[in-house]
Amino acid sequence: MSGSIASYDQLVRQVEALKKENSHLRRELEDNSNHLSKLENETSDMKEVLKHLQGKLEQEARVMVSSGQTEVLDQLKALQMDITSLYNLKFAPEVMSTGRGPEESPPAPAPHRDGPGELGRATFRMLEELDRER
């Protein structure tokens, strides 16, 4: 009978250890989830700022083309391409490093002008078109 008591005590200790580990893992999962939500909100805010800046750049480009300031316009084109490249370099690896599978990854930007890369290309095309018209 003492063997079964020792066995029972051993099982109780194992269950307690598993409960502690489970509790620890739940806290860690909750912390990770909160951190991910925070990062997603920050990314969303940054995208809104980028869209706002893109709109301002497009307005400035139209004004510059109409007033003949093409040197500054060429600098803006280069800056826009740099910003787009930097954004893609900075945020594309972070999405991959979250450990999510392809089915959990955020959808790729639609072919219309939603993503910053598309905005940059669309702006570049628009600026070239305005330059040709001039």
Protein model, in words:
The chain is mainly alpha-helical and 134 residues long. Helices cover 84% and strands 0% of the residues. The chain has three helices and no strands. It has helices at residues 2-67, 70-97, 116-133. Helix 1 packs antiparallel against helix 2 (70-97), helix 1 runs parallel beside helix 3 and helix 2 (70-97) packs antiparallel against helix 3. It is rod-shaped. It starts with a helix and ends with a helix. Mean pLDDT is 75; it is low at 100-116. It comes from Leiothrix lutea (Red-billed leiothrix). One of its GO terms (molecular function) is microtubule binding. Residues 24-43, 96-122 are annotated as: Disordered. This is APCL protein. Residues 6-57 form the Adenomatous polyposis coli N-terminal dimerisation domain.
Question: Care to count the β-strands?
Answer: 0
Helical proportion, percent range: over 70%
The largest β sheet comes out as: none
Tally of DSSP helical segments: 3
Gyration radius (Cα, Å) is 27 Å
H/E element order: HHH
GO molecular function: beta-catenin binding; gamma-catenin binding; microtubule binding
Region (Disordered): 24-43, 96-122
Protein name: APCL protein
InterPro entries: Apc_fam, APC_N, APC_N_sf
